[in-house]
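Posted in: Protein Modeling Q&A

I'm a second-year student putting together a small comparison for a lab meeting, and my supervisor asked me to include a predicted structure for site-specific DNA-methyltransferase (adenine-specific). I've never done this before, so apologies if this is the wrong subforum. The sequence is pasted below exactly as I got it from our records. If anyone can share the structure token output, I'd also love a short note on what stands out.
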Amino acid sequence: MKKKTIKPHPFLKWAGGKRQLLSQIEPFVPDSFNTYIEPFVGGGALFFYLTLKKAIIIDNNPVLINAYKIIQNNVEDLIKSLQKHKNEKEYYYKIRNIDLLEEFKEWSDIEKASRILFMNKCCYNGLYRVNSKGHFNVPFGRYSNPNFCDEVNLRAVHKALQGVEIILGSFENCLKFAQKDDFIYFDPPYDPLSSTANFTGYTKEKFGKNEQENLKKVFDELNERGCKVLLSNSYTDFILDLYKDYKITLVSAKRAINRDALKRGNIKEILVSNYPIKSGV
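Accepted answer (user: helix_wrangler)
Welcome! Here is the predicted structure, written out as tokens:
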């Protein structure tokens, strides 16, 4: 009997994750390209969905990048560490607040990766958020049986990451690697739909209008190089005007992370592309 291949999926729940949008994004993926580059990898939904031989993933969140590297190189040790955690409120807060103590500096990278996977699955609403000092500050989620040690998926992710270059840094780093016919997918922190909708708590750094404009300059540079570039963002006047020289397609997304449960419905998003899209899209 042929052994069933397990398709990997994101090992962390991440604000703005694209698992719900994959069916709409897939037709925009070029039929052929050289290296896949994702400068805001986050949970990596599109990366894991695609079968890739050459890929570079980038993010400026050191906690996230450490987790990717540990899964790539030390997945069995990570699994052993995850198995030691307990879904208990008092224990959760002890683990959450450990980075406030001096002893946290002595923790290994494996222990730090294990900590963030555990907290991500056990915290309220699966939200990754840090304060201005970079400390994780999401309360306990009170879930009955969270799967914080998904061994099957972690091993599938480990396999998918073999040969992948994992880089800690800003989105501009893609310019060091991108060449003609590479495919770059940008999924940045979105331009807020309102003054209260701006969630950029993935890192202590914020992502405002200036950063969006700098991203557009990088998009333009990649276009000049002959790269195939795709970008997701909010359906706002600012973004529509910023990318008016490119093809803009409206898509409908369902957001699972919102402090107001009534606002976790469908919202408009856009996909910006600089190359011909498959017919029928």
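A couple of things worth pointing out for your meeting: The chain is about 30% helix and 15% strand. Helices lie at 22-25, 45-49, 62-82, 89-96, 109-122, 151-160, 209-225, 237-242.
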